[in-house]
Amino acid sequence: MKIGIVGAGLIVEVFLEAVKRIGALRPEAICVREGRMDRALELSEKYGIRTQYTDYAQMLNDPEIDFVYIALPNRLHYGYAAQALKSHVNVLVEKPAVLTAAEFKELARLAEENRLFLFECITTVHLPNFQDIKKRIGEIGPIRTVEANYTQYSSRYDQFRQGVVTNIFNPAMGGGALMDLNQYNVHFAVGMWGEPEEVCYYPNLRNGIDTSGVLVLRYRNFLCSCIGAKDSHGDSHVAIHGENGCIRVGSAPNECRFYEIKTDGGAETVNRQQQDNRLYYELCNFSDIYDRRDYEKRNLLLEHSGRVAGVLEKARQFARMSF
């Protein structure tokens, strides 16, 4: 996979560190606005990126690029992804891939129509610990309640309180706690149990944006509460309570660093992950799917991302939040 990177934010360097560990991936180019060229040159020197662009269309025409990695503000994801797919370039797009279910449906249609690969970069469902929990979930019996919490005081929240609105707290750019942190909880729940029967979101709104909030997902036989907060400090975790035991993930759901399972048979702490870069496992999976041209697995991931996009849209509709 020869990748052209779009953007130069913090997540890009995490991405490049993961790419460095995977031999089948190679960063070929980076595209930024003119004011960010110094940063692009710095990353290029550090990670061996050969070409720098300020014109996205020009990068899409680079014959050495077969994927773009889109790491821009949320509002821009759909347009950049659609342009790449229409130019017959495969797409890796940071979460959230889109802001509406209709947008995701259109991207999936373009990918299918052009026999291309479209992947949403969402760590959770690709992590070995998540997959292990999914295999073992039956050990704790019928699920009764689930609590997923991703609380992280934002480095930009103090600016926001002072009236400086950055993209992550800007409704016009698709920001807010639901679309940033809480969606990892949604990916965990939908990846584990599928689409819920009912979605209710109760946000803490400040200046038109949800700085935190509680999302309630109703499944047939249990409730799942999802807390996402960028305005406070807390203990990020996932707790799954069953009639015969419980499982607790000891970190935010975007990393799932380890989990504990307790049943009548005793307690066990498990970690199946050897890599500390949270993006490593998803990129390994994407590379494998692409190398094998496994359209069936591509479609399964697209279906999952489409379901999550629908849940997030229902949550915003319930809370009467619009972008």
Automatic annotation (TrEMBL):
UniProt-listed InterPro entries: Gfo/Idh/MocA-like_OxRdtase_N, GFO_IDH_MocA-like_dom, NAD(P)-bd_dom_sf
The entry's keywords: Oxidoreductase
Family matches, as Pfam families: GFO_IDH_MocA (PF01408), GFO_IDH_MocA_C3 (PF22725)
GO molecular function, one term: scyllo-inositol dehydrogenase (NADP+) activity
Residue intervals of the Gfo/Idh/MocA-like oxidoreductase N-terminal domain: 1-116
Enzyme class of the recorded protein, top EC level: oxidoreductase
The protein's Enzyme Commission number: 1.1.1.371
Domain GFO/IDH/MocA-like oxidoreductase, chain residue ranges per copy: 138-248
Superkingdom to which the source organism belongs: Bacteria
The protein, known as: Scyllo-inositol 2-dehydrogenase (NADP(+)) IolU
Taxonomic source organism: Caproicibacter fermentans
